[in-house]
Amino acid sequence: MEHARGDHDHKGHQDHPPLKASAHATLHCLIGCFIGEAIGVGLGVWFGLGVVLTIATGVVFAYIFGFALALVPLMRSMNLSLAGAMRVVWLGEAISIAVMEIVMNSVDYWIGGLQATSIGQPVFWIGLAAAAPAGFLAAWPVNHWLLKKEIRAPH
After folding, report:
1. What is the rounded CA–CA span in Å between residue 106 and residue 112?
2. Cβ-Cβ contacts under 8 Å for 48 (sequence gap 6 or more)
3. In whole angstroms, how far apart are CA 74 and each of 56, 77, 126?
4. What does the CA dihedral 28, 102, 68, 149 come to, rounded to 10 degrees?
5. Are 59 and 40 in contact, with CB atoms under 8 Å apart?
6. Given Cys at both, which of 3, 26, 91, 107 links 134, Cβ 3.0 to 4.6 Å?
7. Closest residue by Cα to residue 41 from 107, 92, 86, 140
8. Residues 131, 96, 49, 127, Cα dihedral to 10°
9. How would you write the pLDDT of the chain (155 residues) with one tens digit per residue?
């Protein structure tokens, strides 16, 4: 027998995560991604690496900081090793960060921040400032789905 929408029995689990929980998980992910993105893109622009290498540098740093912000608290609160914490978060974080990075870099590129010749140019900062909310809005429904499917751990 099919249940009516919102009337699922998941043996102790909620029907679906509240939007507030998925927003919180997305914000948590955005903080790590944004810190890494800002550092990586800033270094790329600073050293004149060109757009492709600047994006790659930003993505690498976004993954490093995004995972660090997920792993360290989990290791502390659940007394897990790095490997144990990674097993809990790797897939959900990887997907969330990927979506965020694709959108953030697209917006930043479109605005021109990735093509800035200096981090002192306003377009560099405008690009980053516009990329953050765009990344959040793109990743929020993805994180909601990941939480619903229990692929992503709530933070």
Report:
1. 10
2. 117
3. 27, 5, 33
4. 60
5. yes
6. 107
7. 107
8. 0
9. 333 444 444 444 445 568 999 999 999 999 999 999 999 999 999 999 999 999 999 999 999 999 999 999 889 999 999 999 999 899 999 999 999 999 999 999 999 999 999 999 999 999 999 999 999 999 999 999 999 998 887 76
